[in-house]
Amino acid sequence: MIPILDIDGYTLEYRTRAGAVRVLDEVSLQIAPGQVLGLVGESGSGKSSLAWAVMRHLPGNAQELSGAIRLDGEDLRSMGARQLEAVRGRRIGMVFQDPATSLNPTLSLGRQVAEVLARHRGMSAAAAWQAGIEALRHVDLRDPAALMRRYPHEVSGGEKQRVIIATAFACRPELIIFDEPTTALDVITGARILELFRRLREETGVAGLYISHDLALVSRVAERVAVIRRGQVVEQADARRIFRAPTHDYTRALVQAVPRPERRLVTDGPGGPTVLAARGLGVAYGRARLFGGKPVMGARGVDLELRRGEILGVVGESGSGKSTLARAFSGLARFTGAVVFEGRALASPRQMDRAYRRAVQIVFQHPDASLNPRHRVGALLARPLRLYGGAMAELPRLLEQVRLPPDYARRYPHQLSGGEKQRVAIARAFAAKPALVICDEITAPLDVSVQAAVVELLLELRRRHGTAYLFITHDLSLVRQIAHRIAVMRRGELVDLLSVDALGSEAVHPYTRELIAASPTPVG
Amino acid sequence: MTDVVFRLLRTPQGAMGLVILVLIAAICAIGPDIAPVDPEKIDFLGRFRVPGAAHPFGADQLGRDVLSRLLAGARTTVPMAVAATLLGTLSGAVIGTVSAYLGGRWDEAIMRTIDAVMAIPGLLMALLVVNTLGKGSLNATLAIAVAFAPGMARVTRSVSLAARRQDYVSAAIARGEGGAWIVFREMLPNVVAPVVIETTIRVAFAVALFATLSFLGLGAQPPASDWGLMVAEARPFLHQAPWMLVAPGAAIALTAIGFNLLGDGLRDALNPRDER
Amino acid sequence: MSASWLIRRILLIAYTLLVVSLLVFGITQVLPADAAVMLLGENATPAALAAVRAKLGLGDPAWLQYWHWLAALLRGDFGMSMRTGQPVGPTMLVALSRSLLLAALALALMLVFAVPLGLAAALRRGKPIDLAAGIVSYLGVSLPEFVTATLLLLLLADRLHWLPATGYVPLTDNPVDGLRHLGLPVLTVSLVLIAHVSRMVRSETIDVLHSDYIRAARLKGLSPRRVLFGHAVRNALLPVITIVALDVGYLLGGIIVVEEIFAIPGIGRQLIVAIESRDLPAIQAGALIMAATYAIANFLADIAYALLDKRIRYD
Questions:
Q1: Complex ipTM above 0.95?
Q2: How far is B181 from chain C (nearest CA, A)?
Q3: Taking a C-beta distance cutoff of 8 angstroms, is the pair A398, A391 a contact?
């Protein structure tokens, strides 16, 4: 049987000022009809370049050194521009990572669906429009006729991704390439998109190349999984087997890094006195403007407390108010209710004195934004030492504590990798010898293996200093590994606050149950 | 600082702009000393002399050497434009920063007013101010500064607000830093670069505007050899002696191009994330 | 675009004009230590000075002078020219109509050249056409109008005799000759605009061509032509509307210069004449009308943008 997609010994380089960089090295992959192959790799592994190579959409400095890419036996590399246009969108469909940027903001959704049908199936404008309505109906979009006339900014992220999927499936392609289609979406929305994909697969029998950084997720949608690292496919195996019996060291490390709720990383319980508490905490955003506009509630009526050494996980979707909570605790947002610290009830950020500021530290999601690009690492770390009365001699030890060499003090943030930058941000928080560190999605921009290392670092620092964490994340599996208790937020309200062991019980809020069901856990 | 110059020289625009401007700065500094002839020496026998060995750029309607006048005129043209821009930038930056700092309704009111003031085109504003203060180089400088201030206020405010919203400022607030630290150590270094770039590019406009005022008879006054004035004086003799016009015109253009190139070069060189 | 947005936008224009009127009046009449001396010069006779003071109400407190002036303005009365003794308003409006013709032709010429030039430069990035467009735009942005004007005069009128050097012929008298006389001024002011706008079109187009949705359109199998004209051009040109509207400020400044050089009796030349003869009411009227033109141009651009860009909801 001829494979739908046959990549054979494919090698690709990018010519850069620093010389040639090999992004794909002798890659060979086959996808049989009706089969879905998962391609897993971290950022910079070359997984996206492979997708562009299949779509024949490579940047100008790309140089293909060897190999063949065949679609149903036909060599794509030898095709001319005209032939390729007839392949793209017709025989190979593609679903992109970020639906917010993949649709043209100034064209109606209908036009963007219909133009593919008109282009590849020779339909008239009216027929294409009708077929477009059907295509949208088929991906479970409500009132498709009305949706056709709307513009991307008028619909939700999940709806946009459905429109893109409808477009990809519209011409009944032989192969669909998915490039991280759920990464930019909320957990529950992403889970529904995956469900849709599963159904469409069954109906159409399409073959797929599913690209992702998330091994757990890929093992659930694909039959076979290929692991790519620095341009080389290091292992290719059955999806179930890759988790149970990874053979390559790198795969093993990846599997190890995947957060699994059942594998607890924290064994001791929280002990000691209360560090910080919230009483009826609420935050309103925006101000009443002269012409219309009313304040939006970021959070309301939140009660919780943290004890010494406790890890409290806060989960929820984007806009649920979990980051608002962090802003209130770190005095960045005005709040109602009270923050209780060392027996004192604080009613506004102004009452947060130096002792409070020192005890409660925050680490932000994006180190690129939270580390001032014009200060050296040494200056960044020296500031809290000076502010809270520490010795400059501690600086090398601070770096060492987050496993960075002491000479990094002379570097600027942009000279560091993403994981290293986040370590600097963590070191800055710990320079204050805090009682509580608020971690606001700090692992979200990091690769899985880097994420695992950062989490391990945090746990070690906790063991050493007895620090409590308010760990805000959208990754339920991760938080179930480390947190003592979990707070679930939705639309600004705390819907659940329970011990991690109680998550499986019947007592949980229905929304929490939905979140658990939507979190990807590895099969096998 | 040396670091920035080094990076600037690595960008083609920056290197070109720097070379042009160093040349012009040198002319401003020693121009009158290296002028082959006294720029105001009148020679009726040598009127409209064609460019040649005696007068590389020709002679004007009074037989004065165009090259010498050009070399002497740099001093009255370029430093004035730079001073006007700096003055305009400084006052604009103060307004913009105060507006961003006050925020809320005050910010809105100040910015609406700035927008309203910007409805008066720069040249018109300069004309009105010169009309009131009287003709002359110094007044023209002031007029250009006034004309530039609203635009610079807008630029400064928007970059300050952008810096204000960054997480590193949030981190400083959360750390309990005082206002002075946040403004001067966290925000300012990130605000300065875009403002410097904008200022550099505006010097090019100021050179053109200053020359235009002189050309219209409202800036430098005869017998000064200001470049704009030289073009104005050359205009009646366009047919007989086009070199009188081309030489100062090219000098103005070269200066403006130099500052434009330098601004574009700085844009690349001052980007901290740019590895090269 | 909602009614309340329109109302707010119109109120903003009113505020703009109020601020401009305050500034213009303040700079021209209040700021000078003695406006009468400034107008007539140091050697004026006391009787003449007194007459001017009485005419302009210079004895009154500044706010009262302003109020009288503003009240008259609101009645449509810009005052009497001190040079000609004629009402200033009608003279200025007739002059404005000539300047608007010049501006409209310059904008049209700009669009014809700047958009294709910018697109071509963006599509052939780093190729000779891009380089040429870059040099042209550097020159155009850097050359002041009076230099461009005199150089064009030298080349096209003095040497090649393609276009008449100076003067103005009303289009109603002789359309062909009228347009020929507008040739050099239009060319001059449009050059700066072409330089600036083509650069903006280029950078906007490059940004759009690098966007995810253009990649998505290509990967749907659309032809390059369809991708460019169906998806990219519109999005690249939308922000250019705002840039052109802001450039109207430069355009008006340029018009002052070219009308002076080419002897076109438009509002710019009227203004220069008024400044030279210290004709206070004419200066005030000219400045106010120019600022109003700018404010209205930006208002129209906002409306155009709102109608064309579906993302923006003005409410």
A1: no
A2: 36
A3: no
